[in-house]
Amino acid sequence: MTIVRNYYELCKPNVVLMMLLCALVGIVLASETLVPLIDIIVPLIGIGLCSGSAAAINQIIDREADAEMDRTDKRPIPQGEISVRNASIFALTIGLLGAAILIFLVNSLTAILTILALGGYAFIYTIYLKRATPQNIVIGGLAGAAPPLLGWASVTNTIEPNALLLVLIIFIWTPPHFWALAIYRKDDYAAKIPMLPVTHGEQYTRVHITLYTDYFIFS
User: What angle do CA 142, 144, 150 make, to 5 degrees?
Assistant: First the structure.
């Protein structure tokens, strides 16, 4: 059971659950009639597996930084519970399985969008943006905002303005949400990650949180 738990934690289950909830919103809003349960479950499984793969890749790449941060040093790889090799095999396996489910049982558009989101988070954000700029979460947040679009596309096989609006809502919400966490964990991030509170200070970050929140509320 410990092994199963470790691989489960490698997928960042709480984050994936939130993404699946957002994808479910996209599915429901895209449907003009009551959606058959199978048409909900199958795309969510595919999206969930790909999201879990992206989360595992993120932990593989970030293993050294994770080991130095109180928030993440109990993760399976820093604790030595899962080797990098085994984590990589696991991430590749569930990623390919999720993509296959979407390609063959949902539609190619959903598969392509999901793979792009996976790549954006696991590689572009984790390898480059996260360490390159304090605006990392602003730019990289687009991948995390994709789930409503994925759910919508699984029903309609199209990219529609209303789906993009859902993406925009999450995209605007993400930075103030994450910056608040970054203020709380400022000392953790200071060692490795140039988060906004680290590079520009807490007061500057609070101003940006307020501006984003005000825009979100009044727009």
Answer: 95
